[in-house]
Amino acid sequence: MKTISQYKTRFCLPASVLCIPTIVVCLFSLTSCNMDLYPEDKLSTETYFTSETALKEYSNYFYRLLPAPGTMYEEEGEHFLAPVPCDEVYGIRDIHSGESYWKKDSWRTLRKINTLLENADQCEDDAARAHYMGVAHFFRAYFYFGMLQHFGAVPYYYNVINADDESSLRKPRDSREVVMNNIIADLDSAIQELPSVKTAYEVNRWTALALKSRACLFEGTFRKYHAGTTFNGGSDIYNVQLPWEDLLTLSAEASLELINNGGYSLYTEGTEPYRNLFATIVPRTEEIIWARAYSKELDMKHNAQAWSVARATGFTKRFADLYLMQDGTAFTDVAGFDTITYLNVFKNRDARMSQTIYAPGYIQMGAEKTYAVNLAMSQTGYKYIKYIMESAYNTWDGSICCLPIFRLAEIYLNYAEAKAELGTLTQSDLDITVNLLRDRGKVAHLDMAAANAHPDTYLASADGYGFTNPVLAASANKGVLLEIRRERLVETPLEGLHYWDIMRWKEGHLFTLPRYGLYFPGEGKYDLTGDGKANILLSPTKKSGGIGVTCLVLDQDIFLTGGTSGNMVAYSGMTMQWNEDKDYLYPVPLTDRTMTLGALSQNPGWIDNVEF
Question: Domain for residue 369, yes or no?
């Protein structure tokens, strides 16, 4: 068993040490008898934070908390799949699965945030001090929101922990209510302190409002849809059923403030605005509020492009079926929708569909002609083109397009969903949010009364791919909530939001559903570009299909639901599982439970066999 001294190295540095991100300097213990004097050749917490330059330099470290690029374009679920399913989706997480999120580097960043907040008053420049305290408040909220999503209740630290503060080092978890209230308080401070100037790579007032919009929607709906379960009122750890209405009100208010006063608008330029919004190195700041920057010169790159081009990834049929017809009717209401083939499935659909998914006639940026979708590199045939630029970026670790963290479209959806959940949504609310997104997709507007009068049966099907939580089923706004969820799914795929949407809606059962792809009526040759020439041959044995035709062997290179016909099947032979009483939260790491001598309790359903 680790000792308390080992635990200190995980959560705190000696009180006399100050690590400056851009200048690696450590201050050792002071030995002068006059404790009001400080060595002039050393840096200390008592003398460092006196200028705007110092505050900015120090706060740059906080940006290490930004999401890793893979957490966005690699997001998995019932809507998108990787070559092999991640443990969360497969349902095989173990007691150690939380360790990569509850990690020393993140807690070290929290310490630095608290260090700035405790010492920023040394700076006499009022504007600079307020600005960087706002940055610190934002990132403390950002850190704890991530912890809340993963672990629920966690210990909340307001101050820097000193090395001899054993009670703090062994602190038990604070309730979700305490953690969420502090997130809101930090964001309210950040909203007041941060400048209103739009800065795509640095946090500002609008970034803080965007996080408040997202965080309050998440926690409000999580509480609403998990009420009475082991995660909200039904377990020893979460034994108090927490209210949700005020949080959704706060989300709606933050969203509306950003919508009305942020100066952002949807990006609508060109013939393919949705596609071009993501296929760019420099963020489209009309819509993008905050983004991660990448650069070839600085060797800062990611794999968004190679993940599509060189790996067997793809969207599922379930996701593709969500895109509406241009007249606003559901594709799943079309007669025979299950057997519509690739050349026809994109016709008369939401324009965002062919700007997100590889469609017949797709031409990569910088290319001069179309190529058939590479079915050998997809288990479903629905390859993504979101984030895809010129072929020069196809190489592994070769992408440099910016990755948006917050954008106006999400705020529109947050506002509409929060108001619908509260029962205060109006048609006017839809017209300034969801229907603007539909305009970009060239889809008829959503009518609230019609949606509630006739909820989409496919989206609510208990025996298929629908949302079946009884709280939703009982809602007077069931129909419009289903349509807002549809809009969220087709507007924000591969942006790191979907997994958390499923968690807060309590719809984890969707991960257990089979993943299907394109439909093929039988063996033979198929044209995948629409030019009248065959591109692939489906055959039970390997044979030549002629020049330009790739042979795919059935049950070897491609799997179909009917053997020789039907929909492509992904993860053939795999069975996904989901535990409703456990899998909505990660386990608290065993090492940290041990080092606190059991003060940190474990999440429901996770058994680590540790006794104290």
Answer: no
